[in-house]
From TrEMBL:
<keyword id="KW-0805">Transcription regulation</keyword>
<dbReference type="InterPro" id="IPR014327">
    <property type="entry name" value="RNA_pol_sigma70_bacteroid"/>
</dbReference>
<comment type="similarity">
    <text>Belongs to the sigma-70 factor family. ECF subfamily.</text>
</comment>
<dbReference type="InterPro" id="IPR036388">
    <property type="entry name" value="WH-like_DNA-bd_sf"/>
</dbReference>
<dbReference type="InterPro" id="IPR013249">
    <property type="entry name" value="RNA_pol_sigma70_r4_t2"/>
</dbReference>
<dbReference type="InterPro" id="IPR013325">
    <property type="entry name" value="RNA_pol_sigma_r2"/>
</dbReference>
<dbReference type="GO" id="GO:0006352">
    <property type="term" value="P:DNA-templated transcription initiation"/>
</dbReference>
<feature type="domain" description="RNA polymerase sigma-70 region 2">
    <location>
        <begin position="27"/>
        <end position="93"/>
    </location>
</feature>
<dbReference type="Pfam" id="PF04542">
    <property type="entry name" value="Sigma70_r2"/>
</dbReference>
<protein>
    <submittedName>
        <fullName>RNA polymerase sigma-70 factor</fullName>
    </submittedName>
</protein>
<dbReference type="GO" id="GO:0003677">
    <property type="term" value="F:DNA binding"/>
</dbReference>
<dbReference type="InterPro" id="IPR039425">
    <property type="entry name" value="RNA_pol_sigma-70-like"/>
</dbReference>
<dbReference type="InterPro" id="IPR007627">
    <property type="entry name" value="RNA_pol_sigma70_r2"/>
</dbReference>
<keyword id="KW-0804">Transcription</keyword>
<feature type="domain" description="RNA polymerase sigma factor 70 region 4 type 2">
    <location>
        <begin position="126"/>
        <end position="175"/>
    </location>
</feature>
<dbReference type="InterPro" id="IPR014284">
    <property type="entry name" value="RNA_pol_sigma-70_dom"/>
</dbReference>
<dbReference type="GO" id="GO:0016987">
    <property type="term" value="F:sigma factor activity"/>
</dbReference>
Length: 187
């Protein structure tokens, strides 16, 4: 069955439930990279997070007929990845160097060496400031700002209220602003 690219996640999920493998492919292509970046907050090992994220899609396919998703497929996938990561960490001692690879904010085309250098320096400074955030503020900020989730979706994933999400993101912004202002004043 052909699925149009503009189909909503809900329609794609319904196709998945009816056994259409193309629906799984569409969800995988749409969310795999985002979910891997999210899992990196918990486990900074690319091979492990790729496997855990792939397992989420395998489980989605295997359990498609029994699944009842009420929060939306995106929130469900993020929660499933979070659960996989937590389960993995329970089995293994957690690592202490999250986010060492930094963030990639830029478009890599047509950049000068000077622009690349400045971007790398800013990236390092941002990662250092980001690591100073409290864990819940860090997670809420990442989910909303980097992964594009709504406050409601973040609240569902983190199992907190929308007001708590707002408070965590506001706290993160204040800390980042303070830390990055200090960095720019010292240069």
């Amino acid at each position: 069955m052909f699925l149009k690219e503009k189909n909503s996640d809900r329609a794609i999920f319904e196709q998945l439930k009816s056994g259409d493998p193309q629906a799984l492919t569409m969800l995988f292509n749409k969310y795999y990279q985002q979910l891997c970046r999210f899992a990196f907050c918990f486990i900074p090992e690319n091979e492990v997070i790729e496997e855990l994220t792939a397992n989420v899609f395998i489980n989605l396919w295997e359990n498609r007929k029994r699944l009842q998703i009420h929060t939306g497929i995106r929130a469900y996938l993020y929660q499933a990845v979070k659960n996989q990561a937590i389960s993995h960490l329970r089995k293994k001692k957690p690592l202490t160097h999250p986010l060492e690879d930094g963030f990639d904010f830029s478009d890599k085309k047509d950049r000068t060496p000077e622009a690349i250098y400045i971007e790398n320096e800013l990236n390092i400074e941002f990662v250092q400031a980001f690591q100073k955030l409290p864990p819940r503020a860090k997670l809420a900020f990442k989910l909303h700002r980097f992964d594009g989730l709504t406050y409601n979706e973040v609240a569902d994933i983190m199992k907190i209220s929308v007001a708590a999400v707002e408070k965590n993101i506001t706290s993160a912004l204040k800390i980042l602003h303070r830390e990055l202002a200090e960095i720019t004043q010292t240069r």
